[in-house]
Specification:
Pfam families: NUDIX, NUDIX-like, Zn_ribbon_NUD. The structure is a single chain. The chain contains eleven helices and 16 strands. With 408 residues, the chain is of the alpha+beta class. Strands 1, 2, 3, 4, 5, 6 and 7 form a seven-stranded mixed beta sheet that branches. Strands 11, 12, 13, 14, 15 and 16 form a six-stranded mixed beta sheet that branches. It starts with 27 loop residues before the first helix and ends in an 11-residue tail after the last helix. It is globular and about 70 Å long. A hairpin with a 4-residue loop joins strand 5 and strand 6. The chain folds into two domains: 193 residues, Nucleoside Triphosphate Pyrophosphohydrolase (Alpha-Beta Complex), CATH 3.90.79; 134 residues, Nucleoside Triphosphate Pyrophosphohydrolase, CATH 3.90.79.10. Bound molecules: zinc ion. Zinc ion binds next to loops.
Length: 408
């Protein structure tokens, strides 16, 4: 299986490439101590000794963003709306809130720039929206930013990964307010990377959670076809891979086989791991899904769709799937989304709930299309389509029959 050298969208977070050692000033606990000292110091604005702190405000799961504006034919670029610790303190003070270090969540650092990065949830401070708007900053859905990101631009993809990680952490904080053991309040510890029950007799610790999901392209080797499915929540004409949650006591391979059988009645034999992708843009009850991608080979071909799970599932030959990849206008969708983000930041576009628009990944020319390059499904599909079909068949014919390994 080909090795993916380029990380998927939401992976490759540049703030997390190296975790500082516990005693390092850029590590979560020492950094929080310094930050708290700076907050108490009324001369914060003049504080120059490193590290410096940058804060990314979030409102209802949306990070603050700016857009640099595309001049002429250039597509606008969005950027995360980092603010200084001093500005964050001032903004909150204007809303009558005193900034407390414990409401900041550590995101990571860039020691080469002397900066430590934090996120803060300001959902309760509605007044900030107007205040930021005067600076051409707007809270934008991560999913919208995802579609608006040029996936060939590694710096922009790094910003998207930071936004996704921060959103996942803050969502986890907001759904883990109370102890599942005794019901008391949970408080953040270790700069927000853990939470602990405030009940002295309980002190249960919880860790940010990841929900693994298997996602698989089912392949029929004999006929050189792949199984694509449609869900009713998909935009019209979009087809994708099967996916499903892992059940307790189940291996990933078993989950692939069970989900495929339950949803389509197809039996799966060999299951081959492809790659994985953090997916922080699912439902808020699951702040970070981890999509674990596979190619899985069918042992039976007859489709029997579970209509409660899927709208449809069909075998498609390689040429048709290649057309679905070729004709979909992902780049056009990206430009449209980038322009909309620009309009939101400039205050031209007032609507906040634009996510639905951006689920449309544009497939105007295609009779069918598949999810865009920011989704692992796209890569599971395209890596099958662009495998050398002759080699694929040959490899299949060379599969060892009983005892033939010794003759290779
Ligand atoms: Zn407890």
């Amino acid at each position: 299986m080909a090795i993916n050298l380029k990380p998927h969208a939401f992976a490759g977070n540049p703030l997390r490439s190296k975790t500082p050692k516990a005693e390092d000033p850029f590590a979560p606990i020492p950094a929080l101590e310094t930050l708290k000292t700076q907050l108490l110091d009324s001369t914060t604005e003049h504080h120059v000794s490193p590290p410096t702190f940058k804060v990314l405000p979030f409102r209802k799961g949306r990070p603050l963003a700016s857009s640099n504006g595309g001049v002429g034919d250039l597509v606008p670029n969005w950027n995360l709306g980092w603010i200084s610790l001093a500005d964050c303190k001032d903004y909150l003070a204007n809303s009558g809130v005193q900034l407390n270090g414990d409401s900041l969540v550590y995101l990571g650092s860039r020691p080469e720039d002397d900066v430590v990065y934090w996120a803060i949830d300001v959902s309760d401070e509605g007044g900030l929206v107007t205040e930021f708007a005067t600076k051409q900053l707007s809270f934008v859905e991560v999913r919208t930013l995802m579609v608006a990101t040029d996936w060939a631009d590694s710096v922009a993809m790094g910003e998207l990964a930071i936004a996704g990680h921060a959103r996942a952490l803050l969502e986890w904080h907001s759904i883990s307010r109370f102890c599942g053991h005794c019901g008391e309040k949970m408080v953040p510890i270790e700069a927000g990377s853990r939470k602990q029950c405030s009940n002295e007799l309980c002190k249960k610790k919880v860790y940010p959670r990841v929900d693994p999901v298997v996602i698989m392209l089912i392949i029929d080797r004999e006929n050189d076809c792949a199984l694509l499915s449609k869900q009713s929540r998909f935009v019209p004409r979009m087809w994708s891979c099967l996916a499903g949650f892992i059940e307790p006591g189940e291996s990933l391979e078993e989950a692939v086989r069970r989900e495929t059988w339950e949803e389509t009645g197809i039996e799966v034999g060999e299951v081959v791991y492809h790659s994985s992708q953090p997916w922080p843009v699912g439902p808020s009850s699951m702040p970070c899904q981890l999509m674990v991608g596979f190619h899985a080979y069918a042992k039976s071909l007859e489709i029997n769709v579970d209509k409660e799970e899927l709208e449809d599932a069909q075998w498609h030959n390689r040429e048709d799937v290649k057309k679905a990849l070729t004709f979909a206008e992902y780049q056009k969708a990206q430009r449209t989304a980038a322009v909309k983000v620009e309009q939101m930041c400039k205050g031209v576009e007032k609507g906040q709930n634009l996510a639905a628009d951006f689920n449309v990944e544009s497939g105007e020319l295609a009779t069918m299309f598949v999810p865009g390059p920011f989704a692992i499904a796209h890569h599971l599909i395209s890596s099958w389509v662009y495998q050398d079909s002759f080699n694929g068949v040959e490899a299949h014919l060379k599969l060892p029959r009983s005892g033939s390994m010794s003759s290779l």
